[in-house]
Amino acid sequence: MDKALHQLVVRVEKALDQRERAWGVFLDIEGSFNSTSYDSMCAALASHGVVLTISRWIRATMEGLQATATLGETSVRVVVSRGCPPGGVLSPLLWCLVVN
User: d(Cα 79, Cα 62) in Å, to the nearest integer?
Assistant: First the structure.
């Protein structure tokens, strides 16, 4: 378990044991990588000084991606129109640039 998370759990447990109030706020960003638009990612790259060639290359890796869902003998294929590239370190980097 992450050290910071462990320390938080210890503090909350201590407060509860002493019948004190324990407040917590958690940021759930699940799904955020999937809903970030390509335009916002490219704009964030530009605003952080990334050269246009790199921005275009990143966009080219995202555009045209397809997702397929299959249930039994039925398949549906769609062209993905938003979302950070799957896997690797690029997704969190792009998302952080957009949020920043």
Answer: 10
In whole angstroms, what is the distance from residue 19 CA to residue 33 CA?
39
The answer to whether 79 and 65 have CB atoms below 8 angstroms apart is yes
**Model-level pTM?**
0.62
Give the Cβ contact number of residue 1 at 10 Å: 7
Of 27, 31, 41, 55, nearest to 95 (Cα)? Answer: 41
> Smallest Cα–Cα separation from 80: which of 66, 70, 91?
66
CA 22 – CA 12 distance, rounded (Å): 6
**What are the distances in angstroms from CA 72 to CA 9, 15, 44, 68, 69?**
44, 51, 41, 13, 10
Q: For residue range 47-65, list pLDDT tens digits in order.
A: 999 999 999 999 998 888 8
Q: Residue with structure tokens 């993905």?
A: 80
Q: What are phi and psi of 77, to 5 degrees?
A: -120, 130
DSSP assignments along 70-87, one per residue = EETTEEEEEE--B-PPSS
